[in-house]
Amino acid sequence: MEGGHSLLERLLHDKNAEPTDMPISLLKSITDNFADALKIGCGGFAVVYKGLLKNGAIVAVKKLSNSICMDENKYNQEVSCLMRVKHRNVVRFLGYCADTQGKMSDYGGKFVMADVRERLLCFEYVPNGTLKDYITGMIKWLCLSFFPFYYYVEYYLVQAFPYKLTEIHLSHS
User: N or C, which terminus of the chain has less Cβ within 10 Å?
Assistant: First the structure.
């Protein structure tokens, strides 16, 4: 999987490199076959793993839930959209994997071939936690930093302003 590691290393190094397709074997290799120890987040439709490259670089690998109701068109649209987004405030999209393997399964006493789909996305790793943590922290910082100002505005709008309006109204009547 040496070639795969060098592909990811090149993508990380070259900021102008375009996102590309990635083999499932590469993504399994860098996440230690999606080990729980490398899990860094999860949501309703995906689990995110830390991917460790040979040169010490880190990427984030988002493994979408392997659900029967996964809409292939939505996955394709998401990949298409991610490939076009290039902005300094958006985590860089490095590539995708759409892998389907046939697996024999016992179904009602008969063996049938079932398609097992794996849909993954690979991003540049951002080490400072989740967006939710960042936004919550910023809101707390703003409230603590500007509390006297907010208190003054709240006092003025809730107590002083209605009193002033009443005073103005009475003086003009």
Answer: C
| 123 three-class SS | strand
Q: What is the pLDDT of residues 60-117, one digit of tens each?
A: 999 988 765 667 888 888 899 999 988 877 889 999 999 988 889 888 999 999 888 8
Distance CA 119, CA 121 (A): 7
Check pLDDT > 60 for residue 167. Answer: no
Q: How far apart are CA 73 and CA 82, in angstroms?
A: 14
For residue 41, what are the contacts with CB-CB under 8 A and spacing of at least 6? 47, 48, 130
Q: What is the b/e burial string over 77-103, where b = at least 16 CB atoms within 10 angstroms of the residue's CB?
A: eebeebeeeeeeeeebbbbbbbbeeee
**151: alpha, beta or left? (left if phi > 0; alpha if psi -120 to 50):** alpha
User: Where are the domain boundaries for CATH 3.30.200.20 in the chain?
Assistant: 2-127
Determine the Cα–Cα distance for residues 31 and 14; give it in Å rounded to an integer. 22
CATH 3.40.50.720 fits 2-127, yes or no: no
What totals of helices (H) and strands (E) does the chain contain, helices first?
Answer: 6, 6
CA 68, chain centre distance (Å) = 22
